[in-house]
Every structure is written in structure tokens, then in C-alpha cells.
């Protein structure tokens, strides 16, 4: 795709809040039958809030929050932003983190106050030969049943806390998805988040097909697999982790509110980050093509 966005479709694209990277893009929307939607930042606002901190026996809540905030401080992930913001508000200036590593699609690790810290998906604990049990396992299950994301915090060889983050569905997502169905398209929700949180969001917006717990590098394979089944796939996403899938899809739609890498990878940008603009774009291209032919 060309890096410079062109407005086509008799200027209607601009009015609809859609930037299209060239006339050839319209051609590719024609046969689309499946729309793969990233969850966080696409169907949901992606503005995560820390809503609960549950600690293991013997761990102080403020201490857990401070350590988690410090290790997440260096990450750009919406979950990381929510945790470090809440930690700063509640506990003041955060200690520095050393040896920071971003574990894409999993979480983060680093050294805070001489402690070796992990924060992220519970699967991370297996790196230390640990697994979540007791009260913390219950806290995680409870959070996920509500469609929230549980972040496990561990340091020095033990799980210390579960931090619960919540995201909200964009007010326009449900309407957009029902309009996609009206156009005869099948929506599929794709996310790296846990299956319970994904199912809760899917139920809210009316999506039946959910593909969850997909690692960032594997999102592109999901698109390839659907294409291998003979489907013509549109992908809608906002994150760095969506870029390869956006490029692979027959039509890549990126959120204008998302990362530059995703915007570069897409064929079409939804300027306001409103999913209804995706529906408008598909309708517009169908109409424009009918006029040309
Ligand atoms: P999505 O596909 O919904 O955009 P990601 O692939 O970015 O999600 O992340 C998948 C999961 O990995 C998150 O739901 C979270 O559990 C975990 N995760 C990723 N980054 C972080 C982080 N910085 N801190 C804590 N957990 C994280
Ligand atoms: Mg996302």
C-alpha cells in the first residue's frame, strides 16, 4: 500500500471519516465475507482501568501496587498504563526498574528494589515453575468471569497478587456489528486476551465466533487459515500486534486512534476509531463499484 492516504469514492470517504490508500482498495472490499476484529482498542475503547488488587497472604496491597506500577512503567500497553497510573496516584513516585523486558502478548519483567518481578498472563508463572492457586486463582477466575483481565504479579519466586483491569466496549460497536451482519458479513473476534474476557465482550456486541489467547505473532496465521478455508477476510485492528494480520488480510482496516505501525499496514483508516465507519466504507465501495461498472 502507498504511504500517503488518498481520498476516493467521490469525496464521501472523507465525510464518513475514512481514509483510503488508493482506488485499488475498493476492488478488494468487493468479495469480503468475513470480518476479523481485534478486541482491545478496536471493539473496546482500550482505555483500561485498574479496578481491583487482590494480594496473597503476607503481601501488602500498596507494596504490590508500587512494584507492579514500577515494572509496568516502561511499557506502552494499555494494561501497563492503567497499572502504573493507579500506582502513582496511590503510592506516589515509583521506584526505577532495571533489566526491563517487554514480553510481547504476555506481560513484562524487570528488577524493582532488588526484586526480580514478573507481571502479566498467569502462563508467565510457569517460567518460574509456579502456578496460581488458592485465593489468587479464585480472584483470577472471578475477574475473568466478569469479562475483566487478571494480571498476575510475582516476585522472587512467588505469586504475590492479582491485579484486575477492566476495559469498556465502545458505545457504537454493537450497532456496527449488527450492520456488518446486515451486509451479509460474518464477524470474528480475535484477541490475545483470555477466552472468558473475550467471550464476555463478544456476547455484549453480538459476535458468535471468538478466537482468544492468540499470541501477537500468530494473529497473521489466523487470517491465513481463514483465507485457506476460502474466505475473503477483512481485518480491523489498532495495535502493533495487529500489523502483520492487517497486511495479510484481503482488506486491512486500521483504527485512526491506533498505533502508526497499524495505520501503515492497513489499506484503509477509520479516522475516528468508530467501527461504524468500517460498515460505511464497505457500503461506499460497493456503491462506487456499482457506479463504475
Ligand atoms: P489484544 O490482542 O487484546 O490487543 P495483547 O496481545 O496486547 O492483547 O495482550 C494479550 C494479553 O497479554 C493481555 O490480555 C494481558 O493479559 C497480557 N499482557 C500483555 N502485555 C501486558 C503488560 N504490559 N502487562 C500485563 N499483562 C500484559
Ligand atoms: Mg488491540
UniProtKB/TrEMBL annotation:
This protein's UniProt keywords: ATP-binding, Cell membrane, Membrane, Metal-binding, Nucleotide-binding, Translocase, Transmembrane, Transmembrane helix
GO cellular component, one term: plasma membrane
GO molecular function: ATP binding; ATP hydrolysis activity; copper ion binding; P-type divalent copper transporter activity
Location of this chain's protein in the cell: Cell membrane
Keyword Translocase in record: yes
An example Gene Ontology biological process: copper ion homeostasis
Similarity section: Belongs to the cation transport ATPase (P-type) (TC 3.A.3) family. Type IB subfamily.
Protein name (database record): Cation-transporting P-type ATPase B
Shown residues in whole-protein numbering: 400 to 692 of 745
Amino acid at each position: 500500500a502507498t504511504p500517503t492516504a488518498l481520498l476516493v469514492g467521490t469525496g464521501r470517504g472523507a465525510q464518513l471519516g475514512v481514509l483510503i490508500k488508493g482506488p485499488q482498495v475498493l476492488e478488494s472490499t468487493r468479495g469480503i465475507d468475513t470480518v476479523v476484529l481485534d478486541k482491545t482498542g478496536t471493539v473496546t475503547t482500550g482505555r483500561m482501568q485498574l479496578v481491583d488488587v487482590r494480594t496473597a497472604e503476607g503481601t501488602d496491597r500498596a507494596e504490590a501496587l508500587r512494584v507492579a506500577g514500577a515494572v509496568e512503567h516502561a511499557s506502552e500497553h494499555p494494561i501497563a498504563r492503567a497499572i502504573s497510573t493507579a500506582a502513582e496516584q496511590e503510592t506516589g513516585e515509583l521506584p526505577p526498574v532495571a533489566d526491563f523486558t517487554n514480553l510481547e502478548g504476555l506481560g513484562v519483567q524487570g528488577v524493582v528494589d532488588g526484586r526480580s518481578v514478573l507481571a502479566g498472563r498467569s502462563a508467565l508463572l510457569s517460567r518460574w515453575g509456579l502456578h496460581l492457586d488458592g485465593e489468587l486463582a479464585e480472584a483470577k477466575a472471578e475477574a475473568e468471569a466478569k469479562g475483566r483481565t487478571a494480571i498476575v504479579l510475582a516476585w522472587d519466586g512467588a505469586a504475590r497478587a492479582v491485579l484486575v483491569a477492566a476495559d469498556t466496549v465502545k458505545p457504537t460497536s454493537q450497532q456496527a456489528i449488527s450492520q456488518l451482519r446486515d451486509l451479509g458479513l460474518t464477524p470474528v473476534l480475535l484477541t490475545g486476551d483470555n477466552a472468558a474476557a473475550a467471550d464476555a465482550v463478544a456476547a455484549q456486541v453480538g459476535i458468535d465466533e471468538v478466537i482468544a489467547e492468540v499470541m501477537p505473532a500468530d494473529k497473521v496465521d489466523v487470517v491465513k487459515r481463514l483465507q485457506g478455508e476460502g474466505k475473503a477476510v477483512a481485518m480491523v485492528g489498532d495495535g502493533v500486534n495487529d500489523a502483520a494480520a492487517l497486511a495479510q488480510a484481503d482488506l486491512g482496516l486500521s483504527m485512526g486512534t491506533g498505533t502508526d505501525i497499524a495505520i501503515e499496514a492497513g489499506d484503509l483508516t477509520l479516522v475516528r476509531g468508530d467501527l461504524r465507519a468500517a460498515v460505511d466504507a464497505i457500503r461506499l465501495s460497493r456503491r462506487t463499484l456499482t457506479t463504475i461498472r
